[in-house]
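Margin note: ligand = zinc ion.
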Amino acid sequence: MNCPHCHSSSTTERQGRTVHGFRRFRCRECGRRFNERTGTALNRVQVPTDIVFLVVFWRLRYKLSLRDLAEMFLIVKGG
Ligand SMILES: [Zn+2]
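Resulting structure:
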């Protein structure tokens, strides 16, 4: 996986996972640490993956509209 900061491909995977279960990496070029979600759209909105999966599940299971999902999403996030 390439470094999201300097885009180097010389990265090493680190032991253990983040609290959300993502694989962790360290860049040998710039020395920065990141995980497989760093720099992605999902990471930017700061939503745990399990909530995203839950929302997708609701959409498929109950055929909710995106408007319904947005509302439920806010409830789950607590605000
Ligand atoms: Zn880097």
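The two ends are 34 Å apart (CA to CA).
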